[in-house]
Amino acid sequence: MSDTQAIKVLIADDEPGMRLILRKMIARVEGYELVGEAQDGEQLIALFEQHRPQVVFLDVDMPVMNGVACANRIQDEDPACVLIFATAHEEYRSDAFAVYAFDYLLKPFRMERVIETLTRVRERLLAVQQRPQNPVPAPVQRIKPAGRMMLKHRDGVTFINMEDILLVQREDRSTAIYTADGGSYYTSDTLSETEARLDPAVFFRCHRSYIINLNRIHDITPYGRWTYIVRLTGTDHDALITQEKYEELERMFQ
């Protein structure tokens, strides 16, 4: 995303009036492009896969597939997508936290509240895009993992040195492994299955969709209300870390 490139946003609500309100609010904020509107969960997923928006507004109570189920699907395909719940149901707030929503707006909400959220999203995405890429690795590592990983995929198997693994993440319903030499490898194994094969002294499950190499953390900056961005040395790929995992990480480095 450049300074002039619009942020793609998708909205999903079964009430036409609410979609109209959101549409008008989004139009008030510079830098956004509305790429689609969905009236149920199934349509939302189809539009998401078609347009790959960076931001999704979604209700909890929708026909066919509810908003929390949709959020889980979206997270599995693109964990960096910004999810903003806009709903009348206060009781689903904890479910929204579980899928790391950027914000949770309770209907009826004020226009200023939505504009504030969209402004923060734009600032966060722009800050990520403008940061220096691929920072230089720190000269000292905490622990060097031993051994190699045999990675099975449809073309056969690949052997990866454990110490070269920087980041493991869910991506397009697969598990992606990024390495220090710029390599990227994909497997049908789940993130949990991959995690079980990694050294827990070196690799840290910081988010439901990310595992990071602790030796390669460069910096951590705020992202949403309950998440942070982890930038790693040796790769342009970032990870997300939840507030709970951030506090756990702090204790590990004390």
What is the topology?
Blueprint: E1 7-12, H1 16-27, E2 32-38, H2 41-51, E3 55-58, H3 67-77, E4 82-87, H4 93-98, E5 103-106, H5 111-130, E6 148-153, E7 156-161, E8 165-171, E9 174-179, E10 184-187, H6 191-195, E11 203-207, E12 210-213, E13 217-222, E14 227-232, E15 239-242, H7 243-252
Question: How does this structure look, described?
Answer:
By secondary structure, this protein is an alpha/beta fold. The protein has helices at about 15-25, 40-50, 65-75, 95-100, 110-130, 190-195, 245-250; strands at about 5-10, 30-40, 55-60, 80-85, 105, 150-155, 155-160, 165-170, 175-180, 185, 205, 210-215, 215-220, 225-230, 240. The two termini are about 35 Å apart. The protein has a five-stranded parallel sheet, with helices on both faces. The model has no long low-confidence stretch (mean pLDDT about 85). It contains seven helices and 15 strands. It is globular. Helices cover about 30% and strands about 30% of the residues.
Distinctive features:
254 residues; 5-stranded antiparallel sheet; 7 helices
User: Which segments are poorly predicted (pLDDT under 50) over 5 or more consecutive residues?
Assistant: none
Beta-strand portion reads: 25-35%
Q: Globular, elongated, flat, extended or rod-shaped: what is the shape? A: globular
Distance between the termini: 36 Å
Give me the secondary-structure category. alpha/beta
Q: Could you tell me the mean pLDDT?
A: 85
